[in-house]
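Q: Is it fine to ask for two folds in a single conversation?
A: Yes, each is treated on its own. Send the first.
Q: Here.
A: Result:
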Amino acid sequence: RVHGMVESIETQIFAIENRMESANSQLTTANRGIHLLCNVVAEGMAGGKGAPHASNGTTLYEELMAFTRSTMNSFSGHSPAPAPPMVPGNQ
């Protein structure tokens, strides 16, 4: 009987650990999106002068759009959608 209780507790702990890992992953993804969005908004408020680039050479807007597409696709389980047209002034 004690062995069964211990196994039950271990199973519950494992389930909680899995949920915590999932929540941590979602939080990391959300933080990345918030960071990108804030940078794009700040760039827009500055008039887009200089069009700051991400580390891989793309504009922050392009990086935000790519992040959004990949994140939405990972939630929906679909392949990536084609890139949307660029917003005027952000080309």
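Q: Second one now.
A: Result:
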Amino acid sequence: LFSSLPTDDNDDGNTNTNDEENILLHSIQIKLQQLRHDLSLILDRPTMRNNHLGHECYYSQSTPGSSLARHMDERHEETKGTRGWLLPSRRSLSWLIYLSETDKDNNDESDDDERVDDVTMTTTTSTNDDTDDHDNGDDDGNNGVWNAHINGGLLRTFPQKQYRRSDDYDDKTWEGTAECGSHNGNLQVGWILAKEDRDESGGGSGYCSDDNDDGDGERRMMSTTTMTMTTHPVFLDSWFDHINPYTGVAEPHCILYIVYKKTPISDDDGDEGTRIEYITVPWSIDAVEGNMAEFLQHRARLESNSSKKSDDPTSSSSSSSLFLHLEYAQQFHLLEDRDAWMRRGEGPPAGSVVEDHVPVRGTLVVFDSVTLPHEVTAVVEGRRAALAGWFHEETQPLGGMTNDGMVSCRTL
């Protein structure tokens, strides 16, 4: 786990590994294991507790002029080609422990107020020029606190505005929405500005099913009259049972869907549950040429352009369309849309906000590997360093998962 950590060499070339250093490294290892176990329980990611998965750890060091372009740490298995389903595990959570050191004492230049975000478990630092100077030096050789303006090297993240908890949002903001990242083993591939409330008396229609049904895969039609709008994560199920019209046999197809929480209207309505709404027709992976993400992006753009000829974007698409409704195609955005990133320049992706995190020594940052675009701004002064890595989860098995978390009997 710690084979990549830097070590000091003696004059004779032998590595200096004294007992004190070994005890320190072992202590860090134990704490990281405990962090992984705790997060697996809090976030309901049970396979992350498996000690035999390929959990990663490395030592990162950046000097002035270094930066890291915007990117994602993990992607859906289907977007990786065949190899995506052959890997035993995937990245689940990205983590960093900052060890940055400044070149000089920046205490007189910086006035930083730290705030801990309960949801993302990150420490953000905001500069307040109106506060008094204070001494943030330490005794271990780091003679100053890393300053955003002087040292640079910020971790810049782009969370979706409606999926970040802050003083501007309360628990009601999360009602009706599903957790992002993964659902029933299916990884998220994008976002859509979808319908929150429904009017069962009219409107367009789409397929939906209960997430806690009897597992027979039955789907029913539902109305799609818009009442309010909110952002929803879009998940890709690569093992959807599609009945071949010629053979009558169920075959695995791909399909995109969103998830709604069902909140009881009264105490007699039963427990809360979830409802799956499919936003595309099923399609065979054999019909896709090239990368799956590029295919989805191309289809969304193609069908969005055709929607300009329609006065009703909520109407059903033509028989040759991938998306069930033109509105779905219009509002679909890939998690990793590099073309849009280039068009926007330094601006945030659609629907997201910018959150900068200062790499202050001793700060722990943890975020979802699948959903959060991020980059590192250029280091100006000092040595930006971190112990970093990824906690892994098991790769979804071939055939997918059933609603109760069991491996499906679907075959290739």
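Q: Anything structural to flag on that second result?
A: Two points. The CA atoms of residues 54 and 281 lie 35 Å apart. The mean pLDDT is 75.
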